[in-house]
Structures are given as structure tokens and as C-alpha cells.
């Protein structure tokens, strides 16, 4: 009986295992249901089974087209690889798995697309202001084109978009484009032109495949306003030099080319630089010179005629007139004959005054030296050069000045808030003082300005100044007081000579009315402690000084602290105590009457003010004391 039962149990176990195994045979495919791949990429489909140790696999398309891929099977998995993906792979694929007598199939749809490159932007020509241009946005090797959308943006503005829904006809890679014509303006420079290609593959993914190309716009203008400047002149002498500079406006900046026009009108290229310099010129260098501005849009030209003449005999004086020198300086005037080998050179003043200088001549050059210039050297000097029978003169003006020291700032007293103060700004040893100007500034504000035009009488060194009174405030602290002296040289120099002095303002504030606190009271029993505390505001912070007023009215100094303390008062401590707030701007004073009573005395307290100026400080007094009257 037990043996039979074991056999029955073993047979039922085998049946159950076979039943469970047949129930577990399953097939899966990855990706599931549907996938998409770009033409040229590699893609794999994986078919796998469970519940079968040695399944067999087969792959086919639903329309029995070639697989266009390689199958690799290993164990319970089979992989179909398409590399590269092409049009032949756009099918529904079926994977069949067989296990013993069982057979399972699973299908997957493979869609393909192509958008391999960023779109391209093409222009019909360079972007020129005011000239229409065609811009083309191209997408190459696209599939399927019926799902393509092209967009063209300038900045954030959509210029045009286009879809190609109706154009799907065959399986092939197509190039599609859209075109826009617009007229560039100069404000377009720097803007971004964006060509965006979108491939909408809605069935697979709601987000389209997208590629974009961006170009920054550069708008050009044809060369214009081409101009030539010539230094020193268009009429020159042999041996001289000339510099000609050409400029031309345009975008991109035009290149500059210089040509010389021949007698038959042919242009001979001379230079590709904006500046053309000709040295040691000869008479044959005379002619018409042409400047041409050229960029990729166009060209613009202008011309100038140079005339080179025979070199004459000339006189040159250095330094060039006018010459300015400070009293005591050394000055050397040099006169040279140019174009004459053996000249005769002489010096004189325009007023026939003495030269008061040393003359030295050598060859074609002569110098007049003043070792220490003074007022007697302030003249116009003439250099006369005689060559053969011709005499030429050249004049140089020598001007004298004195401006050797910085101005000085002086105050009439301490700067105190609300108290007038007088400021003196003086400039010593000035000449010529009719050219002198003095400004007094507080911060950026001009307080006073003075010229001395009418005061020049004699040639002498003078000290000049200005004076003004102003009322300082605390807001002036930290500001700079500036005394600025300018010596205007008239025609001698374009800018005046300047000297200045500065002083930082620190405005003091006199102590405010002192305040006294008495703790616990100004009327006390003998032996009681008391604190007298005093405060006063000011700048700088006032020093506090406590004193006791003597019978003769004089003050006896007691303490330099804010609080005067009596640890145990005595009858003789009664009296008037004076607090003083002191700084360099002033003194504030206040007093308090301290009353010390004997222990046997009866107190009758009366609340009375100490004095009219102290109505906020109340004290107690007894009938035997003479209480101060209320004002």
C-alpha cells in the first residue's frame, strides 16, 4: 500500500511540472510595439522567451520583404540588427519562437526618419542697407518630408514658416527650403537670423526632432564720404615732405588704396594704407593723387592735386613764436638759414632796445641766449638773414611770467558752526597779474572768483589774493576748500597754467546747553549718597568740568568726569555746583543747588525751580532755608 501511494504521488508531480511549464512559455520583444530610427543609424530588435530552455527563433516582415538586417540567436534570445538603417527597414517585423509543440509570435512596427544635418542659411548676396536680399533656409536629406516644418526667425520675430504636407510621394531623401526677401537696415547688424527645421513624428513622440542654425547679421554699406586731409599743404617745395590721410565711411570699413593719375589717366597703385607719406619730393612728383575706399559692396574715390615748387631760401626760428619763459629761466633762440650756404645773420629787438643776451653764429645758424630771463627780456626779437642780395627776417615773441608758488589759504579763526569766518586765498610773486584768475571752491561749488585784468600797471612781481566771508555749517565737515590760481597766457598758450592748494574743512560745534541729573535728589539728609551727572553735545565732544561756586563767585574745580559722586554727604557739602561743557568752539554752563540737612531737622518739601534758566530741576528746602524764588 505505501509503495503504490508513492508511485501515484510521483506521477502526479510530473504532470504538474509539465502543466506549469506549458503555462510559463512566453515571448517578449524590445522595444515594444513601435520604434523609430534615423536613417544611417544602427538599431537592434530583441526577441526573448521565458519558460523554454531551447527555443527556436525566426524573423520576417509582415509583407515578407527582405529583413535587411542580421540575426544573432543565443539561448532564449534573438537579436535582429539593422546597421545602417535604411528605407528597406521601414516595416512591421514579426518574431516567431517555437518550443516543443508550442509556437508564439510578437510583432513590432519600425518607422524611419532622416534629419541628419543642421539646416543651412544662404543669402543671394551680401547684406547691403536699403537693397533687397533673398535669404534661403534649407534642410537637406529629409525623410519623410510631409512631416517637415521650416521656420525662419530674425531676432524674436518669425519671418516665415512652411510645411510640406502635400509633398510626400516616394521614399527618398529630399532637400526642402523656404525663401524670404527682406530689405536690410543698419539696425539689423548684430541681430540673429535663425533657420529651424522640425520633423514632426507624432505617432512616436509628441516632441519633434529639431535642428537649428543661427547666423548673426552683418549689414554692409557701400563706401561713401571719402575724404583726404593733407599736411602741411598741397603746395610744397622741393626736398619737402607731405602726409596725406584718407578716410572713407562704410561697412565693413573700406580698405584704402592710393594711386597717382598719369597724364593718360591710368592709375598707378602707390599704397594700400590710409596714410601716404612722400619725402624728399621733386618737381616731377607734382600731379593728381587718387584715394579709393573699397569694400565688398562697392567703391568710392576722391582726389587731390599736389604742386611741388622749386625750393626757396627760407629762415627758421626755434622755438616757434611765441616763447614763454619763467623769470630766472634760461632761454636759447636759434635762427637758421635754409637753402643758403653762407648767410649773414643778425639779431635785434623790434623796439631797438638792447638785446641783453649773448649772440653766437656758426655756419647757417645763430643763437641768442638769455642765461636768466627778466622783465627786460620781454620783447619781440627779429632775426635778419642776408643771402646774396636778398634779406629775410623772422620774428619771435618772448613773453615773461612768474608763477612759482602754490596759493596759500588762511582762515580768520576756528571754523565754528554758524559763526562767520573769513578766508584769504593769496598767490605770491605773480607776473603778469593782469592775466591772473583766482577761484575759491568749497567741494564742487565756486564760492568766489576774481580776475585782476585792470590792475596791471608796472612790470613787477606782485602778491594777489581774494577774501571772502562765509558761515560754516556741520555739513561742510569733510569738504575740501580749494584755492585755484590760473595764469592765463593769452595767445602764448592754449591752456592756462594752474596751481592750487586744498584744505579739508572740520567745522566745530559749540557745546549745547548742559543738562544736569541729580540722583536721588538735590535735597538730602546728611550722610546720604548723591550723584550729579552732566552732559552736553558739541563737536568735538565737549569736556565736562565740575566746579563748586565759592562765596566770592569764583569756581573751585572738582572733577573732569561726567558724574560727580558724594558717597556720604556732609552739611558743608551744601552749595551751588556748576557743570561746564567745554570744547575749542565754546563753553556751556549750568548749575545746581545741593542742600544737605541735619538729621534732627524736620523737612517740609517745596517743589521750586532753582533759577529761571533751570525750571526743569526741582529741589526741596526747609522752612529754615531761604528757598530760591521762582522767576
Automatic annotation (TrEMBL):
Q: Which InterPro entries match?
A: ICAM_VCAM (IPR047012), ICAM_VCAM_N (IPR003987), Ig-like_dom (IPR007110), Ig-like_dom_sf (IPR036179), Ig-like_fold (IPR013783), Ig_C2-set (IPR008424), Ig_I-set (IPR013098), Ig_sub (IPR003599)
Every copy of the Ig-like domain together lies at 25-111, 223-309, 312-393, 511-593
What keywords were assigned to this record? Cell adhesion, Cell membrane, Disulfide bond, Glycoprotein, Immunoglobulin domain, Membrane, Repeat, Signal, Transmembrane, Transmembrane helix
Q: Does the keyword Transmembrane apply?
A: yes
Recorded superkingdom: Eukaryota
RNA-binding recorded as keyword:
no
The subcellular location is: Cell membrane
Signal peptide limits: 1-24
Bilayer disposition of the protein: Single-pass type I membrane protein
PANTHER family linked to this entry: INTERCELLULAR ADHESION MOLECULE, VASCULAR CELL ADHESION PROTEIN 1
Q: What is this protein called?
A: Vascular cell adhesion protein 1
Q: What is the lineage of its organism?
A: Eukaryota, Metazoa, Chordata, Craniata, Vertebrata
